[in-house]
Amino acid sequence: MRADKTLQIRDVVAGRGEKVKAYLTIGETPNGPIRIPLVIINGDGDGPVLCLTAGVHATEYPSIMAAMRLINDLQPSQVRGAVMIVPVVSMAMFQSRLPFISPVDGLNLNKIAPGGTNGSISEILAHMLLTEVIAKAKYHIDLHAGDFGEMLLPFAGFPLTGNADLDRQGEALARLFTPLLISIGPESGPLALPFVGGIVRAATRLGVVSILGESDGNGTLEETDVRVHYDGVSNIMRYLNMIDGEPKIVGKRLKATDRFLIRAIKSGLVRLKVKIGDTVAAGQELAEICDVFGETVEVVRAPRAGIPGLIWSHKVVNTGDPVVRCWGTEPAPPFPETDRFIREAA
Ligand SMILES: [Zn+2]
Questions:
Q1: Domain range annotation of the chain
Q2: 24 CB contacts (<8 Å, ≥6 apart)?
Q3: Which of 95, 256, 264, 283 could form a disulfide with 317, with the two C-beta atoms 3.0–4.6 Å apart?
Q4: pLDDT in tens, 50-64
Q5: What's the gap in Å between 60 CA and the centre of ligand 1?
Q6: How far is the CA of 61 from the centre of ligand 1 (A)?
Q7: Top-level class of domain 6-247
């Protein structure tokens, strides 16, 4: 959708050339209203509407920090089109420093989309976010990071829709966002990520070109991780000609073929032998588990070759607990729309 003279969401109105910061009220608790912050940067020039959401999981701080920085850095005079930014979708999780689920109703916002008006507060929030904010945009990026306890390899994900044009644009955005890895897959199978029930998948069903942007995190706020989001969004805005400059892609992209999870069989203290992003061979040692007497009771090995994409930072495991999740990968096939921006790694 092209930015009109003004962009309006409920009573929040941003005219051409304006940056407006406001709250939308979703519901209430006995303590007061439940609100989400919304910023609309309505550029001077013509262009598409891009929506950025962060804090669907509100302890994934690098993504939130990047959204905040973009709010400050993007000036209407430099923007063609409009950018709508929700820096923290779940304020309840943000204020209480709780990962994954809302303290209000115990639901994971990224598992219940598209939500609905006839549900609990997270379902109402998902529905409102999708139908009243994200649906006003042509493009959407949902910014996430490794949550508490998760060391995560940055990647960008897009769920295939079957609409060739939309799928092509989604892949372009994913390739522009990620520093290395893209995960693009259908609704079921080993690459059903972004998940069914996730905000991104639901947004694509509304016809929005929506991608998932992930960085490392683990409850920390490191500049390297903030940059993944900031640079990814900036690349996409340059590609869409919303701001000046050319996108920069450093080195070739990797495409995920599947994911596999390695769980502990024995219980004890875990000593990791790999990091996220390493290349591991079939049979390679990933971790060692020792019992309370310090004796090694299990050597955790990779069942086949892959790249550790998620390592849980918990140091003690019980039987069945996840230790490492790996990506299977292959070089991404040629993609002329974005390959022209590739620079070789220094
Ligand atoms: Zn998340």
A1: 6-247, 256-331
A2: 9, 10, 12, 35, 36, 38, 128, 132, 133
A3: 264
A4: 999 999 999 999 999
A5: 6
A6: 10
A7: alpha beta
